[in-house]
Amino acid sequence: MSSALRVQPPPDPSLRTDEAQPRFWRCSVATYHRMIETGVLTPSDPVELLDGWLVEKMPKNPRQRSATWKTRRTLEQALPPGWFVNVQDPITTETSEPEPDVTVVRGDPTDYADRHPGPADTPLVVEVADSSLAHDRSWKRDLYARANVRTYWIVHLVDHVLEVFTDPTPAAEFPTYTHHQILSPGQNVTLDLDHTRHTFPVTAFLA
Q1: Can you count the helices (H) and strands (E) in the chain?
Q2: What is the pLDDT of residue 195?
Q3: CB atoms within 10 A of CB 175
């Protein structure tokens, strides 16, 4: 990353206003895109834009990479025509450009030559969580709910379960998901894509 840009974590809401807080950088989607276009940020810079904050991405360990690969393979084998799977590629919302571990996207990759998919194009977002679990269960969950992403999964490698969030409340004062399930190995999870329903064993996603 350019030495002119110092990336800091977002403010910690648990800190009192009179306590020292870490520095961080506010950034709009438009500014973030200009930074990429002008080379201030490059593909090697481990950052993403979350709720208007430029945030350093956490590195992936082998177990997370294995679960990401299993998730992609499982979904790709079941998708009907008109859908594809992205891995660690951006989706653009009004205030964010996260790079989820896995997404199911409407259409064909060539449909997105001039833009990234948005929430309306992305009925499923998946994060594979190990050390990032608290982050994925709170900030990212609410970010995806605010963007009206229909279904959010956390492949929970700590407890070896799949967390399923559905029915977002984007217009609420504090957006979140109305329904939350925790599914264990031996159970199945369903995914609705327009008029088709697909069922998977939870073990297909766990490393």
Answers
A1: 4, 10
A2: 85
A3: 17
Best CA proximity match to 126, nearest among 146, 110, 150? 150
Q: What is the pLDDT of residue 10?
A: 56
Mean pLDDT, the chain, integer: 88
C-alpha distances in angstroms, 57 versus 9, 50, 179? 10, 10, 27
- What fold characterizes domain 62-205? tt1808, chain A (3.90.1570)
Residue ranges of the chain with pLDDT lower than 50?
1-9, 13-23
- pTM for this predicted structure: 0.86
> 79-92 pLDDT, tens per residue?
999 999 999 999 99
Separation between Cα atoms, residue 197 and residue 204, nearest integer Å: 17
| pLDDT for the residue numbered 11 | 54
From the centroid of its chain, how far is CA 70?
Answer: 17
Domain map of the chain by residue range? 1-57, 62-205
Q: DSSP assignment of 48-104, as one string?
A: EEETTEEEEPPPPPHHHHHHHHHHHHHHHHHPPTTEEEEES-----SS-B---SEEE
Whose CA is closest to 131, among 156, 162, 97?
Answer: 156
Residue that has been written with the tokens 């979140």 in this structure: 176
